[in-house]
UniProtKB/TrEMBL annotation:
GO terms for molecular function: electron transfer activity; heme binding; metal ion binding. The chain crosses the membrane at residues 157-175, 214-235. The lineage of its organism: Bacteria, Pseudomonadati, Bacteroidota, Flavobacteriia, Flavobacteriales. This is Quinol:cytochrome C oxidoreductase. Gene3D superfamilies: Cytochrome c-like domain (1.10.760.10), Cytochrome C3 (3.90.10.10). Keywords: Heme, Iron, Membrane, Metal-binding, Signal, Transmembrane, Transmembrane helix.
Length: 454
């Protein structure tokens, strides 16, 4: 009986030690996979694992603070939850870090639990292995070279055979010409030479009706060709030039869902939708120094290409990513303009984006039920959120604009139109009874020359 009790107690002690050890290990190490999610959600705005961004690199931070400051994970918990309070308490190491990083105030995270912080620290200690990105621009393998060699030999053979065939054809033509010359020198052609027409005037005199008809047709075709060529001067639908810094609207506006007006803010409040300054790019790319979303890559481009384009942004703005500060040495970016109205054309972006927004969207979706849009910008610029390289999506001719004004119904219920055209409603309804009171842009002066031309 005593022996049974003794073993029972030992078993309970062993189980207790096992549970406490497991709990301490879990609490100490945490869950790196969950820590990765928390790290991306809370830390990546200011930190990276392997390099300094706004704050220091966080890979191995637990061991580093232990070596540098002689502090443990409990100190890191206090620092992450409320570093300001920790510094205010007089903690020497906390204040040293604050001074070292230019007194940059770190955000406080009181919402993170102890387990959340343990998971993040576990991720910084043992981050999951990341698969190496395959580069499209790698060198060819030996097998590729072996396959390429026969293809090259075949091409050479085809070229040689073609040249020989052309040479044989030329020899045959020379022989035939020689025979014709001898034939011309014989007496058999003497009679034919006497009846042969000697000049163009004789041909014209003989067939002048046919000649006049052909000349008339040629003149009409030439006039039409010249007129058609003149009418399409300045129409560059499909134009998509290469820019000095690669910028994918598909990644930014499409995959990342960034609002057009975050970068092109004056489209809503001004006449011109300006090209955003590089400082707008730096609002995000100060902390995003490399490309990470491999699924969004354009075919033929690899991670190294995208990382290099981000470095061009840094060079243009004079940003030193290592020191996390501006050098003052900037470089202008010579963007190639795509959409450019002639000087004699007046077009106001804000008028269309604000007053005409819903009307334009409704009109476009009515005419294109299988290709609907959700943003007014797409009515003119196409589905920009699907374009890696921006191109001119429409003609932007006078006829194209007039057609839009004739078919786009004015939203008389929005605040601006309801007040401005209050006294015109009855008059316009009498003028357009066939449409059941529907008023299009041309009814309120949309076709007047002075609306678009100075």
């Amino acid at each position: 009986m005593i022996s049974w009790r003794k073993h029972y107690k030992q078993t309970l002690i062993a189980i207790g030690l096992l549970l406490s050890t497991s709990a301490s290990i879990y609490g100490q190490d945490g869950d790196p996979k969950n820590g990765e999610k928390l790290f991306k959600a809370n830390c990546t705005a200011c930190h990276a694992l392997d390099k300094q961004v706004i704050g220091p690199p966080l890979k191995g931070v637990v061991e580093r603070v232990k070596t540098e400051g002689g502090v443990d994970k409990d100190w890191l918990h206090k620092w992450i939850k409320d570093n300001k309070a920790l510094r205010a308490s007089g903690d020497k190491y906390a204040n040293e870090i604050f001074e070292k990083f230019n007194k940059t105030e770190m955000l406080q995270f009181p919402n993170l639990t102890d387990k959340d912080i343990d998971d993040i620290l576990a991720f910084t200690t043992n981050p999951p292995a990341v698969e190496e990105v395959k580069k499209d621009t790698g060198t060819a393998t030996a097998a590729d070279g072996a396959q390429a060699a026969p293809a090259s030999n075949t091409t050479t053979s085809v070229v040689i055979i073609s040249l020989l065939a052309i040479a044989a054809l030329l020899v045959w033509i020379l022989i035939k010409l020689r025979q014709l010359v001898k034939l011309g020198q014989s007496e058999d052609l003497a009679g034919l030479n006497e009846t042969r027409v000697k000049s163009f005037s004789e041909i014209y005199e003989k067939y002048h009706y046919v000649g006049k008809g052909l000349l008339t047709i040629l003149a009409i075709l030439a006039t039409y060709g010249i007129w058609n060529w003149i009418m399409w001067i300045g129409v560059y639908k499909g134009y998509k030039p290469e820019q000095p810094i690669y910028f994918s609207h598909k990644i930014h506006a499409g995959e990342q869902k960034i609002d057009c007006q975050l970068c092109h803010s004056s489209a809503k409040y001004g006449k011109v939708s300006e090209i955003p300054s590089m400082n707008v790019c730096m609002n995000c790319h100060r902390t995003i120094s490399e490309y990470g979303a491999n699924d969004y890559m354009e075919p033929g481009k690899d991670k190294a290409f995208y990382d290099g384009e981000i470095q061009k942004i840094y060079a243009a703005t004079g940003w030193d990513p290592a020191k996390q500060q501006y050098t003052g040495k900037t470089q202008p970016v010579e963007w190639t303009r795509i959409h450019n109205m002639p000087d004699f054309v007046y077009f106001n972006h804000s008028q269309h984006v604000v007053a005409g927004e819903q009307a334009i969207i409704n009109s476009f979706n009515k005419k294109n039920p299988t290709n609907k849009i959700d943003v007014v910008c797409k009515a003119c610029h196409g589905k920009i959120d699907t374009m890696n390289v921006v191109q001119m999506a429409n003609d932007f001719t006078m006829g194209w604009c007039i057609e839009c004004h004739r078919t786009t119904e004015v939203d008389m219920n929005n605040g601006y139109n309801k007040e401005y055209f209050k006294n015109l409603h009855d008059k316009l309804k009498k003028q357009y009874p066939k449409d059941g009171g529907k008023i299009t842009v041309d009814a309120i002066g949309g076709l007047e020359c002075g609306k678009c031309h100075y």
